[in-house]
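Reminder to self: tokens first, then the designed residues, so the page reads top to bottom the way the pipeline ran.
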């Protein structure tokens, strides 16, 4: 991929990175063909350069799940849950098989727990969010060597944990909870109870999975909800951490954050409100700066993240694309932050 000025576009280029507003609303998705009429509209928004696809050489994105597979699972979850009526759960049982399929899809590769993954911020509904939580939580469970039964329960609980949000009658994506009325906030905090109650008497979902669903917003210091519980099993602690992380990067129940901001949040509160071992395990395989991110270095140069360094997610391999004066380089140069110790990433540009 390469960064180009809008004025240099000829039309029909393929967008390599999504175009987003300052509050992370996605305007054009990655993969969009940039027709001429799109370019003029982009320019009206004050955007003067975009990332387009080209021969990227060593650029390497490592995903937990292929996008087409993830989309297929999302459509399955969406079709089943959208047909669901409170306490009418005949079809929901199908999703236990979906959870097992996701687990199998992830763990089929022998090297799955040895990789660093490019988990990106994005717009998402509760179905895509649930698939993402399921896949990340299963990876954490695998790294912690939990049993197959525990992974199954975590997978099932992940797919159902936010089903209670469907009973709310106000917007819960890209919101500031502090901006809700007292009545709305109280209602929002009931969504784990709604989910738990709707599944409480179902024999096909384990007691442990039901408790995970009820507890997914609890915190170690008792500051969570709905029960202000402090003592939870490892399964619940995994779901708490993963759900909080993915909510931040996709904007469920909060304003959307960058991946590195969510990482810093987990670091700040590990051992306080989140299980320290779970947080450390999640961050071990999460790329702080996903492949394709455009970053500003403390040298003033601009770079694109090429690939990750195994076991060092904060020190990726970069390709410098602009010098400190903002001039595009005729020949991009590679910079491995694991080998160059006096250069740091200052901030993410896009």
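Designed residues (350 positions):
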């Amino acid at each position: 991929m390469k960064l180009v000025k809008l004025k240099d576009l000829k039309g029909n280029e393929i967008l390599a990175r999504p175009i987003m507003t300052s509050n992370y609303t996605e305007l054009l998705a990655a993969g969009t063909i940039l027709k001429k009429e799109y370019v003029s509209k982009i320019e009206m928004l004050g955007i003067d350069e975009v990332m387009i696809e080209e021969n990227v050489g060593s650029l390497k994105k490592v995903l937990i799940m292929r996008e087409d597979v993830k989309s297929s699972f999302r459509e399955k979850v969406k079709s089943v849950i959208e047909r669901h009526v409170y306490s009418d759960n005949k079809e929901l049982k199908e999703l236990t098989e979906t959870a097992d399929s996701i687990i199998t899809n992830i763990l089929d590769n022998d090297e799955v727990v040895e990789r660093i993954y490019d988990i990106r911020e994005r717009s998402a509904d509760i179905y895509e969010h649930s698939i993402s939580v399921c896949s990340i939580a299963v990876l954490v469970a695998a790294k912690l060597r939990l049993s197959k039964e525990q992974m199954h329960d975590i997978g099932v609980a992940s797919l159902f944990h936010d089903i209670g949000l469907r009973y709310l009658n106000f917007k819960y994506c890209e919101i500031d909870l502090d901006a809700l009325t007292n009545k709305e906030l109280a209602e929002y905090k009931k969504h784990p109870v709604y989910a738990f109650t709707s599944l409480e008497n179902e024999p096909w979902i384990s007691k442990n999975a039901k408790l995970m669903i009820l507890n997914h917003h609890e915190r170690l210091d008792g500051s969570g909800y709905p029960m202000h519980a402090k003592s939870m099993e490892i399964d619940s602690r995994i779901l708490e951490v993963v759900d909080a992380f993915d909510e931040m990067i996709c904007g469920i129940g909060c304003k959307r954050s960058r991946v590195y901001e969510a990482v810093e949040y987990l670091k700040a509160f590990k051992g306080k409100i989140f299980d320290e071992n779970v947080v450390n395990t999640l961050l071990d395989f999460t790329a702080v700066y996903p492949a394709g991110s455009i970053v500003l270095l403390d040298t003033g140069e601009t770079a694109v993240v090429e690939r990750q360094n195994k076991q060092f997610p904060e020190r990726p391999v970069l390709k410098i694309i602009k010098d400190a004066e903002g001039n595009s380089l005729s020949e991009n140069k590679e910079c491995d932050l694991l080998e160059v110790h006096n250069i740091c990433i200052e901030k993410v540009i896009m």
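The chain has a mean pLDDT of 89.
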